[in-house]
Each structure stands twice: as structure tokens, then as C-alpha cells.
Design brief:
The protein is an alpha/beta fold and 377 residues long. Helices cover 47% and strands 15% of the residues. The protein is built from 16 helices and nine strands. Strand 8 (274-283), helix 14 (291-310) and strand 9 form a beta-alpha-beta unit. Helix 12 packs parallel to helix 13 (258-270). 41% of the residues are buried. (3S,4R)-3-hydroxy-2-oxopiperidin-4-yl beta-D-xylopyranoside is lined by residues 79-80, 163, 246, 279, 329.
């Protein structure tokens, strides 16, 4: 770890003009070497992978970030570019340039890609929304599954076939009242899984879900209803190999419910399923606390969560939703900003959410150390 991290410090000090280009080359060379202290090295003894979500944009435009990704990760998840809305913006017209770039980058650097995601209610192209509403045809969905699986099947091992199918508080079965459900009924999940098996006989087919971590009514219901749903699929022999736990931790909800998570994972193991932590990050609760306290709270929660889930042998990988606060999807909200009475304007405000392993300067935080030590155990 020491050499790679001290490179990052040194680099920041002379990161100007030609010096930046030169140092970036040096770092790139070093990054492709072993990086013994990296997160990917920390998980190696467990035989699992460590990865992060990326966009092709940041990999291209930010060589320092790219080097950090190469040094730390053995798997990449496309944050945006595999989703249907991005991949097929108009009917029959593919836009897989960004996804191709991530796949090529992974192929040339020996990384695996985590296939996220084939069906998600939040990323349906407009033309397909209209189709699903007015003239539902499964053929469009089958085409999308076939195209993506064929194109990236060489590099993707795990596929989030369906993302976020659950939504408590509406239907008795806990299924989300999505356009997919309205168009094809609750059988759309098994249909997608069966198709995915046809186009990827050897891939690991996953259902990825959020809101499974805390001890509140909604998440208790969600854990229960999700297990019932999975039980239904398994009883019908539907091809399902595992589940993704998004793990968007949230300090506003308290601390993760270790017992509930362990019980849930025991049931998952009982079904013979694998588990991947797919989108780990931490939303902060108190941006006014001293920086060190903030980082400690984020690190403690990450550690508590990872220790809880890594207890299970079913866990085959850990992925964070971004590597650096520089590119986190977690933004400080308008309401949160308002709570600072304009402090933001003179620089004393909360800055960025600090819920990823590296800070905005790509320096490792307490969260990095917490993840590294937990994975290394
Ligand atoms: C998010 C991306 O991070 C955002 O940039 C995008 O605007 C919306 O999607 N659960 C998921 C991810 O499964 O695909 C989401 O990613 C975050 C929540």
C-alpha cells in the first residue's frame, strides 16, 4: 500500500502541465503492478472480488482516478452505460459506445465486469415506456437481454438480471408496481431469468435489491417479502444464482441491523444462492460534525456492515458505488444545504458527502482502512 499511496501524495504536489502527464504515466505503470496493499489484494485470500462502479467518462477524462481504480479493483460495474435507457435510446438503435469502452478497458487490464443491469424500472427508454404501456411485447425485452449478454458475455460473470423488483407497502407480495409488472404481470421476473439463462448458459444470474439493512418496518418487510419471492422462484426451479445487496448505507437510519441481516443471509444460503455486495456507500447524517468524526462514523458503519455480511460464505464479491467522493452519486441535498444557513457560500459548508473509500483528492479515508482491514481478516 505504502508505495501506491505515497505516489498519490507526491503526485498531487507536482501535478501541473507536463509534469502531470509524466507522473500519470509513471503511476499507470505502477498501478498495473501488484499493489500489495490494495483493496483487491485485501480480498484475495477469500477468493472473492473487489470492485467499483464507474462511468467510461471518468475513466477517460481523469487519469488519476483511472489509476486508483486500476490499483484497487478487480471488477468494474458500469454505473450507467449498460442500462436499457442508455443502451437503446431509440428503438433498434443501439448506443453501446460507453459500455464498449468500459468492457475494452476491462479486457485490456484483466478486470471482470459486473453486469448491471438488464431490467430496471428507472431506466426504460422513452420509446419502450410507451410500448410497455400501450402495446406490450416481450420480444423487445428479449432482444435487449440477448444483445447485451452476447456482446459482453466474455467479460461478465455476474448479471443483475432484474434490479429493484421489490417495493413494500403497496401490493401484498411486495412486488413493485412497475411498467414491467403492469405489462406482463408478476411473471416478468421469471421470464427475464429464463431468457437470461438461454443467452448466458454459464453466467451467474442475480436479482439486485436495496433497503435490506436496517431495523425499521419497511426494511423488515422488505427482507421478508424478498425471501418469499425468492422462495417462489426456487420452488419453480427458475434459474437464479444469487442476489445482489446494494448496501446503500445511511447514517440517518441509525446503525445496520446485524441480527436481521444475518438471519436473512442464512435463508439465502439455505436456497443455495450466492451473494454480492453490489453498491456499497454511506449517506451521511451530520455534515456539521468535525471532519474526523464524519469520517469515523462512515468507517464504523462500513465495517459493521461488512463484518456482518462477510460472516457468510455465500458472499462472492464486494463492490462500492464509486471509489472516490469526487464522483459519488450521493449529493448533499438542497434541504441539507439549507440547514447550514449559507455557510456553504463561504466555504464552511458540508462540501461533498464523504461516503466512499477515497476522498475527492483520491486520498484514502478511514473508510478505506476499515474496508481493507475487514476484507483482509
Ligand atoms: C444511479 C447512478 O449512480 C446515477 O448516476 C444515475 O443517475 C441513476 O442511477 N441503485 C442502482 C443504481 O441500482 O443503478 C443506481 O445508480 C443507484 C441506485
Amino acid at each position: 500500500m505504502a508505495s501506491y499511496l505515497s505516489e498519490r501524495v507526491t503526485r498531487r504536489n507536482f501535478m501541473k502541465g507536463a509534469a502531470a502527464a509524466l507522473s500519470s504515466t509513471i503511476i499507470a505503470i505502477r498501478a498495473s503492478e501488484a499493489s500489495p496493499g490494495s483493496l483487491k489484494a485485501a480480498v484475495r485470500h477469500r477468493g472473492i472480488f473487489f470492485g467499483t462502479a464507474v462511468t467510461s467518462e471518468t475513466l477517460k477524462s481523469d487519469p488519476f482516478f483511472r489509476d486508483a481504480v486500476l490499483a484497487e479493483c478487480s471488477s468494474l460495474t458500469p454505473e450507467l452505460s449498460m442500462k436499457w435507457g442508455a443502451a437503446e435510446p431509440s428503438e433498434g438503435k443501439l448506443d453501446l459506445t460507453a459500455m464498449d469502452e468500459i468492457a475494452d478497458f476491462s479486457r485490456s487490464n484483466g478486470l471482470q465486469v459486473y453486469g448491471h443491469t438488464l431490467l430496471w424500472h428507472e431506466s426504460i427508454p422513452q420509446w419502450a415506456e410507451a410500448m410497455l404501456r400501450d402495446t406490450p411485447s416481450w420480444q423487445h425485452i428479449r432482444n435487449h437481454i440477448a444483445t447485451v449478454m452476447a456482446r459482453y458475455g466474455d467479460i461478465v460473470r455476474y448479471w443483475d438480471v432484474v434490479n429493484e423488483p421489490m417495493d413494500t407497502g403497496h401490493r401484498q407480495d411486495g412486488l413493485r408496481d412497475s411498467l414491467f409488472l403492469r405489462a406482463f404481470g408478476s411473471g416478468y421476473i421469471e421470464r427475464a431469468l429464463r431468457d437470461a439463462r438461454v443467452f448466458s448458459p454459464g453466467g451467474k444470474l442475480m436479482i439486485n435489491e436495496y433497503g435490506l439493512e436496517y431495523d425499521n418496518r419497511e426494511e423488515r418487510d422488505r427482507r421478508y417479502l424478498f425471501l418469499k419471492m425468492i422462495e417462489g422462484l426456487k420452488s419453480k426451479d427458475i434459474p437464479l444464482d444469487g442476489i445482489g445487496l446494494q448496501a446503500h448505507l445511511d447514517l440517518r437510519k441509525g446503525t445496520v441491523f446485524e441480527l436481521g441481516i444475518k438471519d436473512f443471509l442464512r435463508e439465502i444460503e439455505g436456497f443455495g444462492l450466492e451473494v454480492v455486495v453490489t453498491e456499497l456507500d454511506v449517506k451521511e447524517a451530520d455534515y456539521a460534525a468535525p471532519a474526523d468524526e464524519r469520517d469515523l462514523a462512515v468507517a464504523d458503519e462500513s465495517k459493521r456492515y461488512l463484518e456482518t455480511v462477510l460472516d457468510s460464505k455465500a458472499v462472492k464479491g464486494v463492490t462500492t458505488w464509486g471509489l472516490s467522493d469526487r464522483y459519488s452519486w450521493l449529493q448533499v441535498t438542497e434541504e441539507e444545504l439549507a440547514a447550514y444557513n449559507g455557510a456553504w457560500l463561504d466555504g464552511r459548508g458540508p462540501g461533498l458527502n464523504r461516503g466512499l473509500p477515497l476522498d475527492a483528492m483520491l486520498m484514502p479515508k478511514r473508510m478505506y482502512a476499515a474496508i481493507a482491514s475487514t476484507l483482509a481478516k
